[in-house]
Amino acid sequence: MKILSMRLAPLTALFALLLLARTADAELAPASFAYVLQADSLAKSKPAAISRLATSAREWLVLDAAFATDTPWERADLDAIRRGQPGRKIVAYISIGEAEEYRAYWRKEWGNHGRLTAAAPAWLGGENPEWKGNYRVKYWRAEWQKIMLAAVDDAMARGFDGVYLDIVDGFETFEQDGKDFIDDRVNPETKQSYRRDMVDWVKAIAARARSTNPSALVIPQNGSQLLSYDDFTCAISAIGIEDLFTDGNKLQLESNTNEVLGDLKKMTAVRKPVLLVEYPKTAERQALVKKLANENRLTLLLTDRQLKTLGQSGKQE
Fold this sequence. Notes:
Blueprint: H1 2-24, E1 33-36, H2 39-42, H3 46-54, E2 60-64, E3 66-68, E4 71-72, H4 75-82, E5 89-95, E6 98-100, E7 111-112, E8 115-116, E9 124-127, E10 134-137, H5 142-157, E11 162-166, H6 171-175, E12 176-177, E13 180-181, E14 186-187, E15 192-193, H7 194-212, E16 217-220, H8 230-235, E17 239-242, E18 246-247, E19 250-251, H9 254-269, E20 274-278, H10 283-295, E21 299-302, E22 312-313
Parallel strand pairs: 1-2, 2-5, 5-11, 11-16, 17-20, 20-21
Antiparallel strand pairs: 3-4, 6-10, 7-8, 9-10, 12-13, 14-15, 18-19, 21-22
C-alpha cells in the first residue's frame, strides 16, 4: 500500500495542477450586467450615456462597438464608464454570423432593403426575415472573416475588455432542411460540419482578441449545442443565452428549455458564467424568470428586445 501511495502521490499532484490550470481562466460570474446596443437611445448625447452607464452599478456591460453609427466609443469613454464600478468589464457586441447593412463595412453596391445586387460578394446570402437589414453569411469564408477580425482589432484597440459575439447559432440556418434540421450537417465547402466551422471561427476570434489582451473576454451568444466541443468551451469566457424560459410573455416549450439547460451543465462544470437575457413584459412572467434563473444559478437580465435600456439585473433590482 505504501508503494502504491508513493506512485499515486505524483499523479494526484499532477491532477490538482491540471484542475487548477483548467479553472484558473474561469471568470467569476458577475452579479449583474447590462446589454445596450442603442446607447444613443439610452441618452441624448454620448457624455450623458457615459454618465448613465458609469453610474448603473452593473458589473459587466455589453455595448455596441459604436455609440452611434458615425460615433465610435473611444478609450477615454470606456475608462470613464469603468471608473463607476470597481472591476467592471465592458465588452463589444459584434455580429459574426450575419452581415448588417448599417455597418461601416457594408458597401452600397452590394444592395439594401433586402435586395442584393450582382455585385454582392459570394459569401453574402439572403436577408433575415425577422431582422431587416441583416443578412445570412457563409461565416467560414476568409473574406467575411477578414472583415470581422478587423472589427475585433478595432474594438480591442479602443479599450474594450473583450467581445460579445452574436449569431453564433448561425450554423442552424445551414442545418435546416425544409421544416427539419440535420444536426452536425456537413458543409460541402469545408468537408466538416457547420458546427465545427463555427467552433473554429469563434476560436480564431478568441485568439485574435487575446493577441491584444491575453485576458480578453470572449462571450458567444446562443448556440449552446457547441458546448459539446471541449475546445469551444475552453476558448470562451462565458456564454450569453436568450429566451431560455420565455419567448416574450409566452413560456418556452419545456423540452427546449431542458435541452439548453442540459448543454449549459458544461459551463457549470468548468465554472464559467452564463448570462441569461429574457424579454417578458408582464410582472408575472418576470417574477417566474427571476425564480428560475436563481434556481439555475444564472446571471439574469430582463430587458427590452431592441436593447435600448439598462433593463433589470442584480438582486437590488
